[in-house]
Amino acid sequence: MTIKVLNALLAVLGGVAGAIVLYYLLNKLAELLPGKWEDRVKPYLYLLPALAAIGLYLIYPTIQTFVYSFANARSTEFVGFDNYINLLGSSGFQNTLFNTFLWILIVPAGAIILGLLIATLADRLKPKGEKFSKTLIFLPMAIGAVSAGAIWRFVYASNPPTQDQIGLLNGIVTGFGGEPVNWLQISGFRFNSLLLMVMLLWLQAGFAMVLLSAAIKGVPTETLEAARLDGAGEGAIFFRIVIPQIRTTLITVFITVLIGVLKTFDIVYVMTNGNFNTNVIAVDFFNQLFTNNNAGYAAAIVVMLLIIMIPVLVFQVRQFRAEEAAR
Amino acid sequence: MRIRSTLTTTATLGAAAVLTAGCLSEGGGGGGGSGNTSNTIEVMYAFAGEQEAGFQAEVEAWAAENDVTVEFSQTGNFNQLINTRVQGNDAPDVALFPQPGIMTDLAGEGLLADLTDVVDQADLDAMIPGALETGQVDGTQYAVPMSINVKSIVFYPKGAAEAAGLTEPPATLEDLQALTEGIAATGTTPWCFGIESEAATGWPATDWVENLMLINYGSETYNEWVNHEIPFNDPQVVDVLEQMEGLLLEEGRTNGGRQSIASSNFNTAANPMFDEPPGCYMYRQGNFVATPGNFPDDVIADIDNQVGVFPMPGLTAEDKPVLGGGDLAGIFSQENESAQKLVQFLSSAEFGTNGYAENGTWFSARTDFDTSLYANEVMKSIGDIAYSSTEFVFDGSDQMPGEVGSGSFWREMTAYISGGTDAKTALDNIEASWPQ
């Protein structure tokens, strides 16, 4: 124990001292250069360690992943496009992609609609009621996805008909005299995937609500009053006055939730591990790498995920720049 | 601007700290390394909980008397870690392999000591035949079984079964099928079955398939199938799935039918057995379900009066095939006398007699072990089943490559049992997933 503490202290001290020495040496190095060049080169020398760290931890692994996606399961031999061809040709992976696509389609839009609805309705409550209902809806944000899984297992739990039902939904169903339903096994119309999406919505609605609520409160009352004087109804005010003015927040929420959806792993892993036709891309990646020890397939999946992500990121950066320019 | 540059510097400083901190790790911990000759030895194993506590107590007591210091390294991720440590030249002195596959690989590379002259022949002869052979590579003994578990056990509710007139355990597979139909004909479900196990859902189904493979075709064909010398979707396997369907999956065979099997947790799937009247009469599972947290607490407290066991029968009354598993002790530090002494102790008749046998989680691999030392009648019967076996094989999915043994085999069996795919497709998919 003491050795570990000492080691940790030593690491911190050594690390900081090392960094100071490094910058000192880089600075000295720059000072060796003649006048003008010193100023020109110095900023880059100072940036160097940070760039090197990013290169090592971000760029290098990305390139390596890209390379491995063209290699075999143990990354010992190149196999060309085989990984991609095999994956995209297998019905299992096609299902996985389709499920992921459904998640992308439904969850971000759902989070925004729910968030907007709650924010607008809560806005009309008395301050106390507003605070209370918002806190309640925000609460799941503080719960990790795995813990959410533990909670929702009790919602979807199903026991054989002869046993007591401990699941909430089946408690209701059998309370009305019905037969218990194996909720997470109903893959028709991807119903079980939808049930898992509900969990993510439950986790994310609070986040969407907080941001959108703040944006709605920021809409100048003059514009609302002007619209009312012109005889606009509540619906028209909401869709034609409020929405356009909170557009940037809407986009931010949408993209944040979208990125969260693409990374969704824990909910599916904990609830079904991709069984019963609920697999998504991140769970498939995990199973390819850690169950199947197939680095080639895993890398190929990540590269595909990256390709899906890039347009979203480009859009977000453009949006951000446009906003900055408008200021 | 000033703030921003300060931020960057802090971030880089942090990054540099993280970078350099990596150089200061504590090292291998313990003696380690295959060149170790001291009397401080490290033993690495995968089992945990009660089984680990009992093991440590038993070994500590022995070590204190024999001037050996034993360092215990438990890991849940044995197979991966042992490979990493061997590659890093930091192998433990003694390893208790939970599965034979990786032991065979390492022995093949010449990394494990030949135990032929280390362990007395009399001790080797005392081991359950099939289990001992699992520790051999090309006829050389590289590891000896120091514990076993048994997965060919059928549990039943004693009182309810007697009341229903079920007193004679089935002697053959046909008897078992007849018994199943007999119970089903009375309107009660004969079997309890559950394969839900969180991320490992499906494995209890693989044990069923393996049991039936062993019963129908014997250990030789079973091992060929496990080692992929015959295809996974061989017609014989298709037949076995059909047999399983007749026993377990047809209407009225299990509590709640196929979909409930996939959503019932294997730990608690048998609990309806102890309802009044019983929700089901038989549950085939490993010895470990008869422990607290699985069967209801009041049943565990009164286990000998409430729980009966019989072995999965063979094709004839003389056949007593048993599917199980166990931990195999092998030595990395070839010249280390303390390591040799430890393995000698683990294979001796004395090991387990100082309390380990009573904790209900450990079974000796020696057929001459005094079963009266086990905690209760149920454990004693389980020991007897293992020691009187005519064939003992290791769990097949544990020995298959990870893609199959803990991947497609679990997944496809789950899909098949819950009704997502038919038997043939499931087997074809597993065969297709076998790494080339």
Structure, explained:
Chain A is mainly alpha-helical and 327 residues long. Chain A folds into two domains: 2-68; 83-326, MetI-like (MetI-like fold). Chain A is built from 14 helices and no strands. Chain A is 77% helix and 0% strand. In chain A, helix 4 (91-123) packs parallel to helix 8 (191-218). With 436 residues, chain B is an alpha/beta fold. Chain B has two domains: 40-150 and 324-393, D-Maltodextrin-Binding Protein, domain 2, CATH 3.40.190.10; 153-322 and 396-433, Periplasmic binding protein-like II (D-Maltodextrin-Binding Protein, domain 2). Chain B is 44% helix and 13% strand. Chain B has helices at 2-21, 49-65, 78-87, 100-108, 121-125, 129-134, 158-163, 173-185, 203-226, 235-249, 257-263, 297-301, 303-306, 337-347, 377-387, 396-399, 402-417, 423-433; strands at 40-45, 69-74, 94-97, 136-137, 140-141, 144-150, 153-157, 283-285, 307-311, 321-331, 391-394. In chain B, strands 1, 2, 3, 6, 10 and 11 form a six-stranded mixed β-sheet that branches. In chain B, strands 8-7-9 form a three-stranded antiparallel β-sheet. A two-stranded antiparallel ribbon of chain B has the order 4-5. In chain B, a hairpin with a 2-residue loop joins strand 4 and strand 5. The longest helix of chain B has 24 residues, at 203-226. The termini of chain B are far apart. The interface between A and B is large, with 45 and 40 residues.
List keywords for this structure.
heterodimer; A: 327 residues; mainly alpha; MetI-like fold; 2 domains; 14 helices; globular; B: 436 residues; alpha/beta; D-Maltodextrin-Binding Protein, domain 2; six-stranded mixed β-sheet; three-stranded antiparallel β-sheet; 44% helix; 13% strand; disordered N terminus
Total individual domains of chain B:
2
What is the alpha-carbon Rg of chain B in Å? 24 Å
Number of structural domains of chain A = 2
- The CATH H-level superfamily of the largest domain in chain A is MetI-like
Output the number of helix runs of chain A.
14
Mass-distribution shape of chain A = globular
Look at the helices and sheets of chain B and give the structural class. Answer: alpha/beta
In the CATH scheme, the class of the largest domain in chain B would be Alpha Beta
**CATH topology label of the largest domain in chain B:** D-Maltodextrin-Binding Protein, domain 2
Average per-residue pLDDT of chain A, rounded, comes to: 92
- Multimerization state: heterodimer
Instruction: Specify the overall morphology of chain B.
Output: globular
> Quick one: biggest sheet of chain B?
6 strands, mixed
CATH architecture of the largest domain in chain B: 3-Layer(aba) Sandwich
Number of strands of chain B: 11
Overall mean pLDDT of chain B stands at: 89
Radius of gyration of chain A: 26 Å
- Give the helix/strand class of chain A: mainly alpha
